[in-house]
Amino acid sequence: MSVIIDVDNLSKDYGNGRGLFNVSLKVEKGEVFGLVGINGAGKTTLIRHLMGFLKADKGNVTINGKNYWFDSAEIKKDVSYIPGEIAFPSVKTGNEFFKLQAEYLKEKDLLKAHEIADKLHLDARATLKRMSKGMKQKSAIVVAFMEDKEILIFDEPTTGLDPLMQKAFSEMIMQEKAKGKTIFMSSHIFDEMEHTCDKVAVIKEGHILDIIDMNEIRGMEAIKEYKIEFNKKEDYQKFLMKKFEIISTQEAYNQVLVKVSKEKLNKLFEVLSSLDVKFLTYKPLTLRDAFNDIYKKNKEEI
Amino acid sequence: MNKTLLKQTIKENWVSLLIYTGVQMLLLFGIAGNAPISATGLAYYNIFPSLLMAIYVITTGTKLIASKVDSGSMAYILSTPNTRKKVAITQAVYFISSLFIMFTLTALTHIIAAATSRFGIDGNGVFTIIKLNYGLFFLGVLFSGITFFFSSLFNLSKHATALGGGIVGAFILLPMVAMFNTDLSWLKYFTPSTFFNPTALMGNGTAFILNFIILLVIGAVAYVGGVFVFNQRDLPL
Q1: Nearest neighbour of A87 by CB, restricted to B73, B82, B235
Q2: B175 in a structural domain
Q3: So what's the ipTM on this one?
Q4: Domain for residue B189, yes or no?
Q5: Residue A297 clears pLDDT 70, i.e. is over it
Q6: What 3-state DSSP class applies to A15?
Q7: Residues in chain A closer than 8 A to B11 (CB atoms)
Q8: Shortest alpha-carbon distance between residue B102 and chain A (Å)
Q9: Residue B14: CB partners within 8 Å, gap ≥ 6?
Q10: Which of A46, A181, A218, B225: CA 20 to 30 A from A243?
């Protein structure tokens, strides 16, 4: 796999602990890479560096092997962007906006733009100034997708969209991924990231705390957590002897939370068949859990 | 230069160019239709055109770059494969060309108005009118260079307007103060307006050539500086 976006030890100090500090990450071709963090964590600052709008104090970014600052215009041939705060050029309607952007990219055909607008239920004949937040966001999404670029860089692309449209957007992301595109996006909507991303970087106060491999988290894969309650204390104690990875226990209720990999699943049921089980529930691991864990752990370390 | 951007910039700015040029043409037509060229020179060229041009330059300068960065719409230009340098140069080309058009039109207006008046016009008169109007154009290159520089430097339009407009405004007002108060006549050495002197331009001297070159050079430095800072700085897009 080839690395498309390579952020190497990037620092930008705005003072008062704000900015980015020694940020490194790699996004490979065809990957959907997410960036999560609370407001002010540095998501937008990082994305603005990728776009060559900000110059780092230290470190480097390369996109397709080209320098983010010196070759910025060259890089844009392969990049589509959705800014975190959308402000349109002074044209009247959504359609005129599509036409203008297409002209910058020397693209004559607006068929794709109309297709995407339809998919998002956007009436692009509307005046930009009178558009709702959601409609503006949809217009920006249309422009980002109409060009068929190899790399998509999105800063909170679904702000202002209703849940239905967020889902439509996720589907569009998956379609682009299927075409082999590389996507880098920030978001604070965990569900959206959960379904689309291959990797998610957790950023806090300008530091990357962890990069989560979503395959390890998604319910259908490798590891799951089960909550089991036993009717009798002795069964509960017997179970604890059995060398499973116990995450937590609630002795008063004879409850255990246990992490079981796919390979050990049969073993689990084998053991349970001889015990008196009151109930067993499966608890999927979510990105939100992982995010909270990482943020909490970071707090304890400090 | 980028053609699409130039087209878009013309679309965004031609109305104000038309208004500020039109007002000057009307004024000129009114004054020059009823006075010899020398009288028009003194009555009109001392104050009106530089004042009107300054207002045009201050409002347009901010619009060309700073307000696009301020609103964020610059992101939609710079996310296309165009360098910042190309974007800034395109805006500068529009700015300078618009002033060239402005003063070419006013020169033509004056020539036509003079030719159709009862005083008529000769070759010398045409030359004087050309000197006066292109003198204003060179002054405009300098003024617009200053507003362009601050437009390229700031993220907020209000800062660009305050500084660029403040300086250009001071350059316009200082010679007026110097004119009204002879004790303060030294003030005129602190403004490039000194290099555009209608009284001298109506004579036969050749000092104006050097003056025009000075205006042009300072203006060019300001423009180059503007392109340079825009190319180097952080943009919150």
Answers
A1: B73
A2: yes
A3: 0.88
A4: yes
A5: yes
A6: strand
A7: 90
A8: 24
A9: none
A10: A218
